[in-house]
């Protein structure tokens, strides 16, 4: 084999390796994230599918001394001003309704990510939908039902969806209020959903 042939083989190997890394790395990370959510949660135990869970106030207030049972989900990152809410959706049995309370101008966001290709499907939050209370229908591929009046539909091309919510904590004295608002961000199956009065 000539020197040029070796360079061509090495170059081909490097291009193929880069493609495989770029393609599989996000999927591997989302798989790890899914396992962290469904198995460990924020240290209080698993977070069931189609359930949102907000990190405990004590963990937010003192992330450096997280309990040994806390997953990496709860203890990594540089997020020091928003409470994190997380969950994993399985839309194979039907849509879910996301309810957000009136945030009265407070910054918040709820991000929906397709784990098959690590793309963001939609945001609900101050910058995209405002801070009024609202309900959002999250549906999977092929769903043909009727969207309830006044509700916005978020269509997912995948039956699995990663949900990450954040609510701004303005100060130490605001933590309790922000936590109460975070806990009101909830999911309900469409089949059991009742409109708010």
Topology:
Blueprint: H1 3-40, E1 53-54, H2 57-61, H3 72-75, E2 82-90, E3 96-100, E4 108-114, E5 119-125, E6 134-139, E7 152-155, E8 160-168, H4 175-183, E9 186-189
Parallel strand pairs: 6-7
Antiparallel strand pairs: 1-2, 2-8, 3-6, 3-9, 4-5, 4-8
Number of helices, counting only DSSP H or I runs of 4 residues or more: 4
The secondary structure category is alpha+beta
Can you give the helix content as a percent range? 25-40%
Q: How many domains, as an integer? A: 1
For CATH, the homologous superfamily is named as Domain of unknown function DUF1254
| Beta-strand content estimate | 25-35%
Output mean pLDDT: 80
- pLDDT below 50 for ≥5 consecutive residues: which ranges? 63-67, 69-78
Cα separation of the termini: 78 Å
Query: What is the C-alpha radius of gyration, as a whole number of Å?
Result: 20 Å
| Largest beta-sheet characterization | 5 strands, antiparallel
Strand order of the largest sheet: 1-2-8-4-5
Q: Would you give the CATH topology? A: Immunoglobulin-like
Number of strands: 9
Question: Can you identify the CATH class?
Answer: Mainly Beta
What characteristic shape results from the CA principal axes? globular
């Amino acid at each position: 084999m000539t020197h040029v042939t070796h360079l061509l083989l090495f170059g081909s190997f490097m291009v193929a390796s880069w493609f495989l890394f770029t393609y599989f790395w996000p999927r591997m990370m989302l798989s790890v994230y899914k396992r962290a959510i469904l198995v460990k949660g924020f240290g209080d135990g698993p977070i069931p599918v189609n359930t949102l869970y907000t990190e405990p106030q004590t963990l937010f207030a003192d992330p450096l001394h997280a309990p040994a049972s806390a997953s990496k989900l709860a203890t990594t990152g540089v997020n020091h001003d928003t409470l994190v809410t997380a969950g994993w959706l399985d839309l194979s049995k039907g849509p879910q309704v996301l309810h957000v309370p009136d945030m009265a101008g407070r910054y918040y966001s709820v991000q929906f990510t397709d784990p098959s290709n690590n793309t963001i499907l939609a945001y609900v939050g101050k910058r995209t939908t405002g801070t009024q209370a609202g309900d959002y229908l999250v549906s999977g591929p092929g769903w043909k039902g009727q969207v309830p009046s006044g509700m916005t539909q978020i269509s997912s091309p995948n039956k699995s969806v990663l949900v990450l919510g954040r609510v701004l904590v303005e100060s130490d004295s605001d933590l309790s209020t922000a936590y109460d608002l975070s806990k009101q961000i909830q999911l309900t199956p469409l089949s059991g959903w009742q409109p708010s009065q």
